[in-house]
Amino acid sequence: MESAHLKPAVAAASTLEIRLPWVVCSAWQAVLKQTPLDFEANKDIYFQLKEQAQDVLGSALTQQVRDFVLDPHLTSMVIRNCPRDSDTPPTPYSGVLSPQSTPIACLVSLSLQSLLGIHPVVYEGENGGRLFRHVIPARTSSSQKSSHGSRLRFSYHVDNPDLPLSSERVDNLSCCPEYLSFVGMRCDPRINTTLVNLDAVVEALPAATVRELSLPQFEVRRPDSFASNRRSTPGLPVLVRGLANEWLCRFDSENTHGMNAGAECALNTLRALLESRRFDEPHLLLPGDFMIFKNQRVLHARDGFEPHNDGADRWLIRLFAVNDLNRVHYARADHLYEVRS
Ligand SMILES: [Fe+2]
Looking at the whole model, is its pTM more than 0.85? Predict the structure, then answer.
């Protein structure tokens, strides 16, 4: 099993790219086909999926995958050629589809998050409490700037940025997601997921702008993906130092506003630098590709596109995760994953 295929390639300075050899993918697929997806009834499934993945991937590949969380310089990881559902339904334009309709994709997401030692969550008020979010061009939301939108460009942002970042205190709200993972279900070669490495952006900004962005003088509005409680939170900094002194960010191009002229000017400088597109890292996810990135360490964006509406449009399955369950408040006592926002 130890071969040159297991060697990771660094696609960009901050992205770890791993390809699963056919023999590994095939063995993992066989195991997952025997695994019922019933995470509400089987509370041990998350642990079982980790054990299974470890066995199938082997120690070298497992360690390479885990390095993503351990290495503060790595901000994104793509694992190509993961197991896939053999009978993929049409792209769910309503945004609602039972996980049992795509069990392998959902099990791959949960297995890899479990292997990484991170914890999947869904935020109250978003996605109807369903753990898996379908990133699709929804027929009713084509003009929304969200994971259900299509025609409008969805500009640079961090997801759920009004919530406390990793080094900020949590009180009655749950923490901001530390990770977003995606499984490619259907690819549209026209549409990339764009990632921007925060460190490169901060390094290119004037020191005075970094200082302004670090002050608690910004108001952040909840993103379009929240159905209700679209509040605004004032008095937040855009840039924050993390626990290892790394930069963290809560910028959301559409939903961040300066509370004074200096703050607004710093935001404009940041926007202009990003819109130069010189920091863009485009990623095309093929069916069976898994991508994960550190939500507060990168900005992500998607260009606008015209959906085909033929049942075969671009489709990714997204899953949020956090490092520490002590930093979330469960929304309901009977629910394993839904947290208060
Ligand atoms: Fe997003």
Answer: yes
Q: In this structure, are strands 280-283 and 256-258 parallel, antiparallel, or unpaired?
A: unpaired
Domain that holds residue 119: 15-196+283-339
143 band by pLDDT with thresholds 50, 70 and 90: low
23 part of a folded domain: yes
**How many angstroms is it from 159 CA to the middle of ligand 1?**
5
In this structure, what CATH number is given to the domain that contains residue 101? 3.60.130.10
pLDDT given at position 102: 97
Strands 179-186 and 290-294: antiparallel
Of 191, 196, 153, 194, nearest to 286 by C-alpha is 191
Q: How far is the CA of 21 from the centre of ligand 1 (A)?
A: 30
| Structural domains in the chain (count) | 1
What spacing in Å lies between the alpha carbon of 328 and ligand 1's midpoint? 20
Say if residue 300 carries a ligand binding annotation: yes
Identify whether 314 is part of a domain: yes
Distance 158 CA to ligand 1 centre (A): 6
